[in-house]
Design brief:
Blueprint: H1 15-22, H2 34-66, H3 72-91, H4 99-103, E1 106-110, H5 117-135, H6 152-157, E2 159-163, H7 164-171
Antiparallel strand pairs: 1-2
Helix pairs in contact: 2-3, 3-5
Length: 172
Amino acid sequence: MSRLPALSLRDNPDPEAARAAFAADGDLSVFDGVISRRLVAYLFDLLLISALVLLVAASFWVIGILSLGLLSPLLSVIILFVPWAYHTLTIGGRRAATPGMRLFDLEVRRLDGERPGYLLAALLTAIFYVTVAATSWLVLLVALFNARGRTLHDFLCGTVVVRVAALDAARL
């Protein structure tokens, strides 16, 4: 039985094409417009995270009333994990991108061209939130000073964000 060729790197990545694109002397077209797209994608994701937090808060408000306030302290702890879980589950998943990133044709990849997986996505997300909280978003300025638009958490985790359509074109 023969396999049909993949139509998109979203479904079946070609590691050789990805490695060539991520090489030091590789084609930088997969990184064109990544910084601006990441910013708008994050704002979109922030809206989705806010909606999830409101949903969790409303459900725990009801649970808090029913438990006479005994379970209310759990709300603050669980609300802290909503953004972390959102990013970890979506970046570590099959698409390697949050809904906002998918909307703007972005995907997270390791430097070897593979998708990150859940463990690396959890680490990437934790480092993102720690560095952003510690520097009041100033840490993200790192992306302005490198050709691939990598942020500090990308450097620390060995990841890069690419435009999927450009990566597909580089593959052909």
